[in-house]
């Protein structure tokens, strides 16, 4: 198990100027990708900047009152909600959750830092934003969104993509080769499970509530009003198949695919280590006081060692 003191040494700013409060504990994880409209996409769920974005079958962004595709409507999970590697030891993504002693109004759009404590991903860290909940989740349970992770109780994927060959209802595909059976736009997130996540099967975690990085809120469109920074940057404010597919391209599927875009600031000024240093619509520092600014996706570049 990796202690928070050790993580603080590894990720000095990444813990991340993010630590939002003392809410923390131990928990369990599972995986799913059901394509349904997430619960936090409905209006009035929590005190947030706006509900979580949903997408139609062609990945166009829809309004919050559109009926779920799992209930005969046309609103689905956007393809860019799949996870991606930021570095060899850090990943970002989204999840459904149930936090003991809390409620949906408290966890909708809240971010949590998950430190994996079992299986081949032990010691790795993932920051997830909660976009959904579930009546089948236990206490301190994070159901991580990953394509090919199993549809679970509901399946909107056939309706969204026309067909879906995602493996078992619970657990999903059983090998990386089976990710090729999924629509191409979500294959990177399926491959992530066997690459960065090393094929982990429902590992346990230590979890900590943290402030959301803009790389996640720029995708979901949702930030809790209690967090500093207010409304997240949304770039062009437009979403098309091409723009969303680019965020799900090979640059997200491999921790080694990020390329250096800027070098450290010579005079020591600039963004702190693990801070954001670039991305569509980003207006902050673009040089790094420590480390190198590395591209993660079109919305986010980060200062990394």
UniProtKB/TrEMBL annotation:
<dbReference type="InterPro" id="IPR000254">
    <property type="entry name" value="CBD"/>
</dbReference>
<feature type="region of interest" description="Disordered">
    <location>
        <begin position="223"/>
        <end position="270"/>
    </location>
</feature>
<feature type="compositionally biased region" description="Low complexity">
    <location>
        <begin position="239"/>
        <end position="265"/>
    </location>
</feature>
<keyword id="KW-0326">Glycosidase</keyword>
<protein>
    <recommendedName>
        <fullName>Cellulase</fullName>
        <ecNumber>3.2.1.4</ecNumber>
    </recommendedName>
</protein>
<feature type="active site" description="Nucleophile">
    <location>
        <position position="34"/>
    </location>
</feature>
<keyword id="KW-0119">Carbohydrate metabolism</keyword>
<dbReference type="GO" id="GO:0030248">
    <property type="term" value="F:cellulose binding"/>
</dbReference>
<dbReference type="InterPro" id="IPR000334">
    <property type="entry name" value="Glyco_hydro_45"/>
</dbReference>
<keyword id="KW-0624">Polysaccharide degradation</keyword>
<dbReference type="GO" id="GO:0008810">
    <property type="term" value="F:cellulase activity"/>
</dbReference>
<dbReference type="InterPro" id="IPR035971">
    <property type="entry name" value="CBD_sf"/>
</dbReference>
<feature type="domain" description="CBM1">
    <location>
        <begin position="269"/>
        <end position="304"/>
    </location>
</feature>
<dbReference type="Pfam" id="PF02015">
    <property type="entry name" value="Glyco_hydro_45"/>
</dbReference>
<dbReference type="GO" id="GO:0005576">
    <property type="term" value="C:extracellular region"/>
</dbReference>
<dbReference type="GO" id="GO:0030245">
    <property type="term" value="P:cellulose catabolic process"/>
</dbReference>
<keyword id="KW-0732">Signal</keyword>
<comment type="similarity">
    <text>Belongs to the glycosyl hydrolase 45 (cellulase K) family.</text>
</comment>
<dbReference type="InterPro" id="IPR036908">
    <property type="entry name" value="RlpA-like_sf"/>
</dbReference>
<keyword id="KW-0378">Hydrolase</keyword>
<feature type="signal peptide">
    <location>
        <begin position="1"/>
        <end position="22"/>
    </location>
</feature>
<dbReference type="InterPro" id="IPR052288">
    <property type="entry name" value="GH45_Enzymes"/>
</dbReference>
<keyword id="KW-0136">Cellulose degradation</keyword>
<dbReference type="Pfam" id="PF00734">
    <property type="entry name" value="CBM_1"/>
</dbReference>
